[in-house]
Amino acid sequence: MATPLLSKANFFSGAEDTIKVALIGCGGRGTGAATQALSTKQNVKLVAMADAFRDRIDNSFKDMTGDNNIKSRVDVPEERKYVGFDAYKKAMAHADVVILTTPPGFRPIHFEEAVKQGKQIFMEKPVATDPAGIKRVLDAAEIAKQKKLNVVVGLQRHYQNSYRELYAKKELIGDITSAQAWWNNDGVWVNMRKPEQTEMEYQMRNWYYFVWLCGDHIVEQHIHNMDVINWFKGGHPVKAQGLGGRQVRKGKEYGEIFDHHYVEFQYADGSVLNSQCRHIPGTMSKVDELLIGTKGKIFCGAANIKDHSGKVLFQFDKKGENDPYQTEHDELFAAIAKGEYKFNNTEYGAHSTMTAIMGRMATYSGQMLEWDKLINSGLNMMPKEFAWDAMPPTLPDADGFYPIAVPGKTKYI
Amino acid sequence: MGSSDNEKGRDVDEGPQKVFSISPFWMGIYEVTHDEFDIFFKDANTSQNLGTDAITRPSPQYIDLSWDMGREGGFPVNSMQQRTAVMYCRWLYNKTGVFYRLPTEAEWEYACRAGSSTKYFFGDNESDLEKYAWYGKNSNAAYHKVGQLQPNAFGLYDMLGNVSEWVMDQYDENYFTKMKDVNADPELKPASRHPRLLKGGSYADDATELRCANRTKWLPEWNKRDPQIPKSKWWLTDAPFAGFRLVRPLKQPSADEIEKFFTLYLSN
């Protein structure tokens, strides 16, 4: 089934110009991404949906068919709604483009399959939760490149006008010698355990709090900020050490992740990134990036560049800001419709994910970690088997509490 | 209520002008501040479990939607959906036993005009605006602490400018045409969640948008950077100018009427 679709994927024109999309992962973000895909100028149709849970598909379908702007583009009859751990394969087979928006632990498996089936790809960040997953993604990225498959990764600051302008003018600050990155806020939702759930189902429903599924919040959210620093630096850190813990996230519903991390990253040229992320209600909220160079500073949130005396060298006019989530899809689908091979975001997406994983393993272990050693460590946190009655890699004690990383004791490989 | 055909800068949805009577009410002289709102937002005794409890507090903001304009010390609360403001009223009723709500559009405009029928409550002269209102020209692109400038004749501060203020009504461009000429307490009850409207213009607007009769209709773009579907029922990622103030009707409705009111405004 893959071959005819693959050959067709590069020729969208005339009467046969419908671009078929499959949505893999039908939560809030997946529904958002599919809505954006269906809001592009091209003749796009959603033809298949996949999720581990039937109710996720139903809610997503209801939201999209209830949206007058896109409902005529939703063409997903009952037989193309696929439920379960292997649903992704079947849904992908119907499509030219796949949207990969499940919890990030599954991304390497889904990306690998999408590349194998020769699909054009939009995938959300992060692209993995462990070094073994990063390896799989980078290997599949090589094949995607050979097959000329467009891959857009949902690190949307790359598609946001203010960031693009700041990047274009980054020479104004000279060489970047250090940087700061923040994702400090109250935290996210919790889905409480229900008595009828198996352990696997509970962890999948409350996925944010399990490392194999989410990566910890340093990976799942703070990746955006570290990614900006990598982007402007033109590379990734080579070392990291840091500290973190669980100060207020004490309930069993918070699984195993930390509520704060502070990491000092070092790049190959010796420059430093200080990164902090916190999920603690009632504390100072800040999501931003700052780059410091030999001649000045780039303030990403304020979207301006100043010299060291404080004089404004460049101010982005915020009236020119776009909706970067929509732009990701506008640009991807425009390229696909023209048969162009234009987007290969996988490598930087994988490197920024790996940066965040290195930060997490540094705070979990309390050790100085090296990139090469960690990425080649083979550390694999995924379950051995995917089934509702299978055992996830982390299990609760008799009271429902999960083992938490302890710096000085937890091993990073 | 509304503007005359010859008012410079007016929009067609502001007329024809109407005269009506209105029942007495108290109105907050200031816009509700972050400090006040945070007592609700951070009330650990109130659930965040939307959908199952009658009173729930807002979900956390993924990013700080005050956008560095100030949070503590009297800055107006901002970036909320209308229902978030109504939920605040419900929480406040539960805490105090007193029924507060947003003003209707008619009440808001009556209070703003304070007896005037000119473009602004102080007259038609745009150059006087900076004495009373934070707007595009003097705001430095940010809201300011409430009550810093001169009030209107009723003693209400920041009715024009600073944050734009949610009113109760559904937005209908033909509202004035449909409204009867002599009417007591006009109000357009909501038939759907959107669109509702804001009054008073904001720190980001030019002088035309600050006219007493101006109506700012809710737009879907106000949540364009919310990457999730459904989009947040609480917050607006791209409407930092949206705020509110409270009224308290002199004659308190019955407990039953109050429940019906909250059910109507929070259920759709």
Q: What's the SSE blueprint?
A:
The complex is a heterodimer of chains A (413) and B (268).
Chain A: H1 2-8, E1 19-24, H2 28-38, E2 44-51, H3 54-65, E3 81-83, H4 87-92, E4 97-100, H5 107-116, E5 120-123, H6 131-146, E6 151-153, H7 161-168, E7 176-185, H8 199-205, H9 211-214, H10 217-220, H11 223-233, E8 239-245, E9 260-266, E10 272-279, E11 286-293, E12 296-299, E13 304-307, E14 312-315, H12 324-338, H13 346-365, E15 369-370, H14 371-375
Helix pairs in contact in A: 2-3, 5-6, 6-13, 11-13
Chain B: E1 19-21, E2 25-27, H1 34-41, H2 82-96, H3 105-113, E3 164-170, H4 175-178, E4 182-184, E5 196-199, E6 215-217, E7 242-243, E8 247-249, H5 255-267
Parallel strand pairs in B: 1-4, 3-7
Antiparallel strand pairs in B: 2-8, 3-5, 5-6
Explain briefly what this protein structure is.
Chain A is α/β, with parallel strands linked by helices and 413 residues long.
Task: Pick out its properties.
heterodimer, A: alpha/beta, disordered N terminus, B: alpha/beta, 4-stranded mixed β-sheet, globular
3D structure, described in words:
The complex is a heterodimer of chains A (413) and B (268). With 413 residues, chain A is an alpha/beta fold. Chain A contains 14 helices and 15 strands. Chain A has helices at residues 2-8, 28-38, 54-65, 87-92, 107-116, 131-146, 161-168, 199-205, 211-214, 217-220, 223-233, 324-338, 346-365, 371-375; strands spanning 19-24, 44-51, 81-83, 97-100, 120-123, 151-153, 176-185, 239-245, 260-266, 272-279, 286-293, 296-299, 304-307, 312-315, 369-370. A nine-stranded mixed beta sheet of chain A has the order 14-13-12-11-7-10-9-8-15. Residues 1-15 of chain A have low confidence and may be disordered. In chain B, strands 6-5-3-7 form a four-stranded mixed beta sheet. A two-stranded parallel ribbon of chain B has the order 1-4. Chain B has helices spanning 34-41, 82-96, 105-113, 175-178, 255-267; strands spanning 19-21, 25-27, 164-170, 182-184, 196-199, 215-217, 242-243, 247-249. Classes of the chains: A alpha/beta (413), B alpha/beta (268).
